[in-house]
Amino acid sequence: MFNFNLHAPTKVLFGKDQIAGIAAEIPANARVLITYGGGSIKRNGVLEAVRKALGDRVVFEFGGIETNPDYATLMQAVELGLAEKVDFVLSVGGGSVADGTKFIVAAMHYDGDAWDILAKRGTGAQKIKSAVPFGVVLTLPATGSEMNAGAVISRRETGDKLDFHSPHCFPRFAVLDPVTTFTLPARQTTNGVVDAFVHTTEQYLTYPVNAKVQDRMAEGILQTLIEDGPKVLADGEDYDARANIMWAATMALNGFIGAGVPQDWATHMIGHEITAMHGLDHAQTLAIVLPSLLNARRDQKREKLLQYAERVWNIREGSEDARITAAIDATRAFFERMGAPTRLSAYGIDGSSIGDIVAKLGEHGMTALGEHGDISLEVSRKVLQAAV
Ligand code: NZQ
Ligand code: ZN
């Protein structure tokens, strides 16, 4: 196992009716900005519960944060927050609202052009010295953003989708009430399960470092998603299944399974470029890229793929190659069963844009991806070509 520092300061309030608990987490005299998306929280009663919990605090609202939150929209929220001297921000919604909120709270304190936080990879985010405190009420289990310090921000004007991380961007608290997820449309339920699955494989399907706890936790998360993913699709109001999916998604990207182990993230980086170019949902891009990438990296990932085949899919028969192929096929079949097609062509993309996608990867410095840093632009091109 590698050395690691683990910092997971977000307080989790998990379960039914936990939204009421935010009253004790936000200072009574705070000037609060509620950030939200396209309005689902108004239709399903979550906003009402949040406003009730906030009592007579001074509250402002900023809605309209789109999926794959856009820089231009977020800068409007920064202006509002500064003008109204907001000192606490509450993100109510899915990962896009949580990510957008991280950018807003960092940009409100940022000295310089806030776009640098994303454009100057690493150094821009290092310049974040503080941020407005914020909490998250999560309504879509998927990204893990509710308990981590990363965010992915898009800029449609320039066709960019970039991530940043800052220790100042951990939520103070995260409310995870599975009941808030009952109203998710099937497509978003699917996206959440696929995203959490691929977060887990990005940190698990690399090479062995004898990290037993992390491996077993990752396998437990994957098996939970495989078992309960179809249940939440079949019955959106199955509380127990929704609860298990919600906690699985948080645990997949809150730092624990990734501590002390190698990490890949190539599927995500390639996927982000597909979203930026074609507008596919984040998880759709992962369903397309992961099976193809695992196949292309079967030699480099051999030992972990065999462990994955045996422990997650119970595949024990046949040659090593046959078992690896069966595990990749099972992964693809699971995504398809969950309603996420795994080929570019299924989304109407014929492959003619692969050159442009690879060029964007190059422009963003994504030229040595993966746990070995050996996924060159040529490898990414082959992964995409095999995914048409
Ligand atoms: O906008 P509203 O009206 O709220 O509707 C949303 C949105 O249309 C809807 N929704 C959310 N909760 C709902 C609901 N509809 C009904 N009932 C509910 N309870 O779902 C739609 C999608 O929401 P969004 O927040 O965009 O989805 P998700 O949570 O999947 O977030 C995707 C974004 O997160 C980034 C992705 O790249 C993408 O931009 N990621 C962030 C990560 C992180 N911070 O660690 C890691 C991930 O790998 C990912 O890249
Ligand atoms: Zn993801």
From TrEMBL:
Stated family: Belongs to the iron-containing alcohol dehydrogenase family.
PANTHER family according to UniProt: ALCOHOL DEHYDROGENASE YQHD
Pfam family, one: ADH_Fe_C
UniProt name for this protein: Alcohol dehydrogenase
Keyword field contains Oxidoreductase: yes
Keyword tags: Oxidoreductase
Residues covered by the Alcohol dehydrogenase iron-type/glycerol dehydrogenase GldA domain: 9-178
Organism: Cupriavidus pauculus
Any one Gene Ontology cellular component term annotated for this protein: cytosol
Fe-containing alcohol dehydrogenase-like C-terminal domain residues: 191-359
GO molecular function: alcohol dehydrogenase (NADP+) activity; butanol dehydrogenase (NAD+) activity; metal ion binding; methylglyoxal reductase (NADPH) (acetol producing) activity
Cofactor: Fe cation
